[in-house]
Amino acid sequence: MNNNLWFQNKKVWTWIISILAVITLLIGLFTYTGIRGIRKSIHDSSVTTGTMTTTQSGETTDARNSVTLGGKSYKYTEKKTYNVNNTDSSWADYADLTVKKVTLYRLATSQKISYSNESGNTIVVFDLSIAAKKDVNPLLSISTLSVNGKQAEAASVGSSSFTGDINSGVTTDGSLYYIFDSNDSLDNFTKGLRWKGKIFPADSNDNNTKEYDLTLDL
Questions:
Q1: DSSP states of 149-175
Q2: Half-sphere exposure at residue 38, Cβ-oriented, CA atoms within 13 angstroms
Q3: Residue 49, CA atoms < 13 Å, CB-side half-sphere
Q4: Residue among 91, 81, 104 at smallest CA distance from 130
Q5: What is the pLDDT of residue 132?
Q6: What is the pLDDT of residues 69-87, one digit of tens each?
Q7: pTM of the entire structure?
Q8: DSSP structure class, residue 207
Q9: CA distances from 217 to 81, 84, 85, 188 (A)
Q10: Is the separation of the CB atoms in 154 and 178 below 8 Å?
Q11: For residue 35, which phi and psi values (nearest 5 degrees)?
């Protein structure tokens, strides 16, 4: 009669080792597949085809006259760029806001733009810079732009540089996008351009919110 305990049985240990080997092989296979997928995703997101030029403000144009927002390209028939470089330092102890540039794109057709629910034939890109002197929270995703009797809220085109806190001593550049439908020429379109947006202190106990109401003469 064999009184060996189970852990003294060679066949049991052979069976256990075989199962562990299979589990280890499966874990390795899943890990390799996952890492390969992540690497492919990173590679795909960083690859650009064609002849491309990326401006300092972040909008991308190519030789076929198109602007890319949120990963999608929109053909335009006309483009106008206004270098503003106008700084508002009225919120002196908290932050300086600079309107660096305004760019207008007249699209070939009126269409829905990126992730927003807005449709139009004109994209207005507002390039801003915020130099924080205290921790601030720019809630500029709900800013508005009114132009020549029309008004639009900032459109969602993917991630934004103006979400979340900006720490004291940090300068953040970013762009805001506004969609309009207009038959006016771009020369006349900018009449009465007015931008409104709010920046909050990061400290929830600080009620010194800054509301900007800027009129630009382009």
A1: TEEEEPPP-S--TTSS-B-TT-EEEEE
A2: 6
A3: 3
A4: 91
A5: 97
A6: 877 888 999 999 999 999 9
A7: 0.69
A8: -
A9: 13, 9, 12, 12
A10: yes
A11: -65, -40
